[in-house]
Amino acid sequence: MAQFYFLSVLLNIICGLICVYDKNASVVDLDDGFDGNATSEILDVEKNQEGDAGEPIFSNPMFNLVSGALCLVTGIVILLVPYKGPSLLGDLLPALAAILGGASVLLSYLENRSDEFVAPEILDVILVSNKFYIGVACLLFAVMHFIAPGAWII
């Protein structure tokens, strides 16, 4: 169905960007390998890019909640909808990326918003510690799925 194809590509891109640009998921240490001036210049550029509008949209908790939930539900529905032809494997990897990306965004939202919520250790290791890599996978599969929607391997 064209609707789920569109949602899969769009929500994988959104959740991928949320995961990649999450401040807690960064795998690059700004102090490592840079002198003090370079680090302050990088941080100043990031502050100037935000402008006067305040925080960027990817750090808005309500946007993260809605995007993560929609991405998770879309990934599950894509797995459940019957397809004709060779697109099963072609939709499998983007659907799994959507499920992992949506679950990662939702788990991070719950951990950041609630002091009482404690995620199981296995979910924390898989989804939160590897959030950057899940985001890169979501972006990669979204672009590949957009370019070649019926391919066997994408």
Overview of this structure, please?
Helix content is 69%, strand content 0%. With 154 residues, it is mainly α. The longest helix has 27 residues. The protein is globular and about 45 Å long. The two termini are 16 Å apart. About 13% of the residues have low confidence.
Q: Mean pLDDT, nearest integer?
A: 78
User: Which structural class best describes the helix and strand composition?
Assistant: mainly alpha
Helix content: 55-70%
Distance between the termini: 16 Å
Shape category: globular
* Strand percent estimate: under 5%
Radius of gyration, in Å, reads 17 Å
Number of strands: 0
Output the number of helix runs.
6
Query: Which H/E pattern describes the elements?
Result: HHHHHH
Uncertain residue ranges: 28-34, 36-48
Largest sheet: none
List the defining traits of the structure above.
154 residues; mainly alpha
Task: Describe the SSE topology.
Elements: H1 2-20, H2 36-50, H3 61-80, H4 87-113, H5 121-128, H6 131-147
Helix pairs in contact: 1-3, 1-4, 1-6, 3-4, 4-5, 4-6
Q: What would you say about this model in short?
A:
This protein is mostly helical and 154 residues long. The protein has helices spanning 2-20, 36-50, 61-80, 87-113, 121-128, 131-147.
